[in-house]
Design a protein that fits this description.
Pfam families: C1q. The chain is built from 1 helix and 13 strands. It is α+β, with helices and mostly antiparallel strands. It has 2 domains: 86 residues; 133 residues, Jelly Rolls (Sandwich), CATH 2.60.120.
Length: 222
């Protein structure tokens, strides 16, 4: 009887001890989970703060870029407005300027004709060293060119804007001398360039009479 009671008491003590151990383990696990959660919460809060700071910095950069672009646009507009107000008269005429009879061409490539003898250059938009007219202001311009040739070789010229062909004039005389001309009105932006080129296989003749000319003038600004 005493032996049975002893074993019963021993089992009761073991059961109580096991429950206490399990409870302690559960409490320890709960504490660890809470600690991890606190760390995650703190980390998320820090990341959110960093994201907010980055967003503010990026927004500031975007705003600065917008302000800079607006400033540059305003400056360009002011410059263009100033040019439109100040440049009201643009006109030029020039010839090849050969004093003795001279043939130019034919060449195997298109060649920009340089009209060296400047007759008029109001506004200084025509460059007699390159043969190129550069628009100083946005507007509508009118251009004309006249080509003179002699027998046997095609005489011709082509008007170009920024490398794009606009119009051509040519003659192919069988005998004697001939002339060809063309003209056009163009809407030009500031900096657009206009020139006359000698086509491949063409030739022009010039002398002291200034047969071959290139002219242009501003009709009105826009």
């Amino acid at each position: 009887m005493k032996i049975i009671m002893f074993f019963s008491l021993l089992l009761l003590v073991c059961s109580v001890s096991a429950d206490q151990t399990e409870t302690a383990v559960q409490q320890s696990d709960t504490q660890d989970i809470h600690a991890v959660l606190r760390e995650l919460t703190a980390s998320l809060a820090l990341q959110n703060e960093q994201i907010t700071v980055l967003q503010r910095e990026n927004q500031g950069t975007i705003n600065d870029a917008r302000k800079q672009n607006k400033t540059e646009t305003d400056q360009k507009f002011k410059i263009m407005t100033f040019l439109s107000l100040s440049v009201k008269q643009v006109a030029f005429s020039a010839s090849l300027g050969k004093q003795s009879p001279t043939d130019t061409g034919p060449f195997t490539t298109e060649t920009t004709l340089i009209f060296e003898h400047v007759i008029t250059n109001i506004g200084n938009a025509y460059n007699q060293s390159t043969g190129i007219f550069t628009a100083p202001v946005r507007g509508v311009y009118h251009f004309e060119f006249h080509i003179f040739g002699t027998a046997g070789i095609r005489a011709g010229g082509s008007l170009f804007r920024n490398g794009d062909l606009i119009c051509t004039a040519y003659e192919h005389p069988k005998s004697g001398s001939v002339s060809a001309s063309n003209g056009v009105s163009l809407l030009l932006e500031v900096g657009d360039q206009v020139s006359v080129r000698l086509p491949i296989g063409s030739s022009i003749h010039e002398n002291q009479n200034h047969h071959t000319t290139f002219s242009g003038h501003l009709i009105f600004t826009m």
